[in-house]
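User: Batch of two.

Assistant: Item 1 of 2:
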Amino acid sequence: MHTDLVAALDIGGTKIAGALVDGGGRLLVRAQRPTPARQDGETVMRAVAEVLGELSGSPLWDRAGAVGIGSAGPVDASAGTVSPVNVPGWREFPLVDRVRAATGGLPVELIGDGVAITAAEHWQGAARGHDNALCMVVSTGVGGGLVLGGRLHPGPTGNAGHIGHISVDLDGDPCPCGARGCVERIASGPNIARRALEQGWVPGPDGDTSAAAVAAAARAGDPVAVASFERAAQALAAGIAATATLVEIDIAVIGGGVGKAGDILFTPLRKALTDYATLSFVRRLTVVPARTGTDAGLVGAAAAALTRTPDVTAASR
């Protein structure tokens, strides 16, 4: 049997996307369903099964040798379960077993969504050619993943590199995770917006209070908006510097909605990094925006499945 493709799933609180992906990272067939995030776990699984059903209807399906899943977390790759914060019906849901059953026993590789985007950026994006990298997603939350020694480093449960929950402010605000002063509590989009509003930022006539609106105000010179992005940049810089000091990365890639803010984020971030990344071996660290777009989750899930397929295809012959 010729298996040169993988099936990829990208599971989030808004949508469940699927694709058949080739060894060059091209998405050949796509399927998508909205995530019934407020429904019970079986209803959510039905949406996943519909996406897989649509993919398996393609004549290319027979060439798929494995399934890669990037899921909102926490995930537990060692147990094959997912408990996405924004999908309450799934708590320790046995997603790997269910997807294996739905695909007639194909091998399944599960990683968190931050690790998936890291895999995509290392394979196709801004971290390409770098053997040691941190890739971050800064949006509603702050996630991330690591490439160490040229390989994706998901860790035993698939959550390594979760930079959003490094504490960078010991006496900071309580974070929903239970700790204090986490990077996410300072640098995520909703927290950038919350802080700007608390400090007296007034949204425009359209009433938009998103981080993107704060970024627009910052570009127009609003000092409160500028300050909220500077504070986020400082938190990100501290987390990135801590990571670089621990594992010697030479590039940090930032994606997600907040990553699209451009110079409003990157200028203060690069400046703050010089304050935190002071040791000789972390001074050469560069920080760049992500290059892979909305398909990053699918591309990364495919990358995770492809890197494990040599033994898989041998076993399935």
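Item 2 of 2:
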Amino acid sequence: MAAYVASGGDFNRDTDYITTRITADGRDGYPVEPGRYRLIVARACPWANRAIIVRRLLGLEDAISIGFCGPTHDADSWTFDLDPGGVDPVLKISRLKDAYLKRFPDYPKGITVPASVDVRTGEVVTNDFAQITLDFSTEWTAYHRDGAPDLYPEPLRDEIDEVSRRVYTEVNNGVYRCGFAGSQQAYERAYDRLFAALDWLSERLRNQRYLVGDTITEADVRLFTTLVRFDAVYHGHFKCNRHKLTELPVLWAYARDLFQTPGFGDTVDFVQIKQHYYIVHRDINPTGIVPKGPELSGWLTPHGRESLGGRPFGDGTPPPPPRESERVPAGHGAG
């Protein structure tokens, strides 16, 4: 069983990812090419959820296939438990680790999602989750759907990057810093940092609909995947319990606004999210019991954020409904 709690007190995430990029000019040896790459994700994982959302918003389904790992994994690898026989139907592997070892036989780090895999060779290309979504927006433009939004508009990139950095360090990673703290002092420091950032976000979003500009950007995608997991997991499991999301009026309305936007809430599988955290993190939850709650119907209630203006997709249009093979199973969402 893997250990997640930081033995030294403060949790520090290993951010040394495979930085190879898939680009239009192929400068790293992996050119943009429809059908060549498979995006491996797990609905449970917030970092992977970003990639699922961006791929769908941009309409890259025909260009980049997707494979879903199950919600739980052992200390060794994410696995394809959801597929017949436990084998990915395209890569023909049962463990994502196989794709990592195919390229790096002595790969020393954890096997993470999302990961882009070269279907031709079966080798992992990258697991750099932050760069994957930016490259979807900037390198795969020739294969975006008609009406795809600009999630990383050039005039706003500096501000998007600045906001995203703070969201990452203080919120996306901040909840883990609370949950994996190895001492009371480390936990309390992390707790104070997290809620200071949530207070800052509440003020920022009080009078503007989105984090940067008047449309949905990469920054909103990155914040959403943490907020949507907050009450189901982080409030209790990670002890981020000053307030529930539902008790933070601005952020709760903002999160509902995004959840009800096509491409966001229809990618969220609350059952798998809870199974992942409560079953995998046995050093935090030794019984492996998965909580029955919280009640989810509130995600579909009116949010009132339209009054702030803004155009969710800018000059673009909402994505069509998800494909049948990519839909969240019935009973796993908020409906």
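The first strand starts at residue 37 and ends at 41.
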